[in-house]
Every structure is written in structure tokens, then in C-alpha cells.
């Protein structure tokens, strides 16, 4: 009687070398405060702080930013606020980065 010893040959599962792409794109690693938005509206000068370089505007709705009317301060350059006084009616444009609004244009209107 011959005993057959089964010779087990287990095929070793060969793992395919998975080379996952590590390059996830060129836009990563660039911290950004947020998309810069631009808005325009009209309002009334409520306060001016030349030392801090801010102007506070009681402004109307800013549709581009989905803002209701409110009173808030914006950063402004000296030459932008030098000709203003409290109570002036102004039209203005701002850049908004999500935290801070900066006046890019401001001018009195009416008279
Ligand atoms: Cu506002």
C-alpha cells in the first residue's frame, strides 16, 4: 500500500505593488484666508479713525456679499478718508477676505 502524501502547494498571493499617487494636486498647501470678494454700496460716514486707518460706515445692503444694511468699520488709506467727515453720504467699494473689509474706492455723492 502506498500512501500518497498530498503535496500542498499554496500559491502565494502576490500583492500587486499599489502605487497610490501621492500628488493630490497643485492647489494644496496654499493656505488662503478665503476667496477675496468685492462689494459695492452706498452709506453714511458714521465715524473716522485716522490713527487706526478705519472708517465706519452706516451702509446699505451689499448684494454681492449678501450683507444686509449695517454699521461697520473698514480699513481705509489716509488719502481715502482725508476728505471725509461724519455725516457724509458716500458710495464705496470694498474687498472682503472673509474677515476684514478694505475700502478700495470711496467718494462723496450728492452735495
Ligand atoms: Cu457691513
Automatic annotation (TrEMBL):
Gene3D superfamilies tied to this protein: Copper binding periplasmic protein CusF (2.40.50.320)
Quote the InterPro entries the UniProt record gives: CusF_Ec (IPR021647), CusF_sf (IPR042230)
Q: Where would one find coiled-coil regions in this protein?
A: none
Listed Low complexity bias regions: 16-36
User: Which segments carry the region annotation Disordered?
Assistant: 1-36
- The domain of life for this entry's organism is Bacteria
Record protein name field? Copper-binding protein
Source organism? Novosphingobium olei
